[in-house]
Prior knowledge:
By secondary structure, the chain is mainly α. The protein folds into two domains: 2-125, Serine Threonine Protein Phosphatase 5, Tetratricopeptide repeat; 159-264. The chain has helices at residues 2-12, 32-51, 55-68, 72-84, 88-100, 106-146, 159-192, 196-233; strands spanning 245-252, 257-264. A hairpin with a 4-residue loop joins strand 1 (245-252) and strand 2 (257-264). It is rod-shaped, with a radius of gyration of 53 Å. The termini are far apart.
Amino acid sequence: MRYAVCAMLAATVALAGTPGLVYAQQPAEMSDEERARQVEQLAAQGAQAYRSGDYAKAIELFEKAYALEPVPNLLYNIAKCHEKQEDYEQAVDFYQKFAVAPDVDSKARQAALDRVESLREIANLQKDTEKGSDQQANNGNQQNQQVEPAEPVVERDNSAAVWTMVGGGALLATGAVVGLAVAKPKADEVKTGETYAQRKAARDDAQTYALVADGLLVSGAVVTGIGLYLYFSGSESEPKQTASKAVVTPWVTSSSAGLGMSLDF
Length: 265
């Protein structure tokens, strides 16, 4: 009778595992024919549930059938159901139970052992993947914690440099005007003066205006250079500072003339 039930189940399904088996007590009054009929019916229902994708229901039906009659093929079917559910630990457990069960064909036993090896590799791969994902998440959290806020960038104030260059340009222009419009005519008057006194006075005036023009030109060049230095040497990350002030003071004596300049930073 047992061999007939085994052959029937093997032809009906090829399925997989589930949680621990429930071994129900067999009614004392149930005959072998009735038990075989119920096992056959439960196995057929389990196979139908497996084909429809209801693996939990198939496991339940196969376990009930195994409780009535411990047919090894039912263990294989339960293992197959667990494998479909990706419950690899339970699947491996029932494949191993099937492999050590008596009266199991050698080819079927080897097939079950092959599935055990494959499922263990899959389970280990999943654990490694989950471990790697957790490690990446932890590293990301640590990096976020270690990132320091960037310092605010303070806008650079170039007004001092710009005004310094403007002042330098004005001094250069004034020096050129003085040299061309005033000093040169006085120099020409030295040659055309009618008397010695007129020529001497014109010469003194020409020298004075020439000194003033030279002073303006030199001061303008210096101020312009300072303005360029301030403009290009400023750092964008430095705090905004108070504008620098340039003060130019002309001076003239009976024998010389010039400009004095001071910078207030």
